[in-house]
From TrEMBL:
InterPro entries: Membr_insert_effic_factor_YidD. The lineage of its organism: Bacteria, Bacillati, Actinomycetota, Actinomycetes, Micrococcales. Pfam families: YidD. This is Putative membrane protein insertion efficiency factor. Keywords: Cell membrane, Membrane. Could be involved in insertion of integral membrane proteins into the membrane. GO terms for cellular component: plasma membrane. It is found in: Cell membrane.
């Protein structure tokens, strides 16, 4: 257990450790609000590149998340087939937010994985395959 003298030092260390992640998340959220709407729905992938980057940094941290986002941006071009492209799972199951209640899962993870978090079984049948 930490002594009362080392608690403030640990809090400062934790703040500095998560500062790059928080700065990147803030930048991506600002981009999604201010710039992304100007382009409209042009991304060939689901989730969009900015949503992919936001989830990658949220789950994997600033360094690995930025690497995954850059790799995704290189794959996103006019000659790409596109499709569904989720971020790779984190080694730590807790970081994937699997099995956690939806209230404690970051919103971007819920939005990027509707098959995992949204209930498609309203009346006992799959609403996506229901006859009209």
């Amino acid at each position: 257990m930490l002594s009362s003298a080392t608690k403030p030092l640990a809090a400062v260390g934790r703040f500095l450790w998560y500062l790059p992640r928080r700065a990147l998340i803030l930048f991506l959220k600002a981009y999604r609000v201010l710039i992304s709407p100007l382009y409209g729905q042009v991304c060939r992938y689901f989730p969009s590149c900015s949503a992919y980057a936001l989830e990658a940094i949220t789950v994997h941290g600033a360094v690995r998340g930025s690497y995954l986002a850059a790799r995704r941006l290189l794959r996103c071009h006019p000659w790409s087939a596109g499709g569904v492209d989720h971020i790779p799972a984190h080694r730590d199951e807790h970081q994937n937010f699997a099995g956690l209640p939806m209230e404690s899962t970051p919103r971007i993870v819920v939005l990027n994985h509707p098959e995992r978090y949204l209930d498609h079984l309203h009346d006992g049948t799959d609403s996506l395959n229901r006859a009209a």
